[in-house]
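thought: fold this chain, then report.
action: predict
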Amino acid sequence: MSIELLNHQVFNGGEVIFKAGESPRCAYLIQSGAVHILAGREDHAPIVTTLVAGDLLGEMALVDAQPRSATAVAKQTTTCITIMPGDFGSRLAKSDPLVRAMVKSLTRRLRQTTPTRVSA
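observation:
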């Protein structure tokens, strides 16, 4: 699929991309900018990591359709390519069965080892 055909989304610095506990809509591939990943729903939650151009975020939700495990906030103006579940699912379905099993297993294990601090 050509990159020109993909949907792009721009987030301003400080803008929440998604919050922990939300139902997933898509994943994102960062083209430019940076995104803080926070351990919880609150904007002041601790920063777990910062992702930059070339990094994916929200990808676990495409694998298992579970609620978001963290909050993502644009650190600065950030442009992302949106990856929809159907697009990802069709690519994963075409992959080698071993690759599919590994992706699902890694996602499950990561969810089991990542504490979710979702507070209302």
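thought: worth noting. The two ends are 39 Å apart (CA to CA).
final: tokens above.
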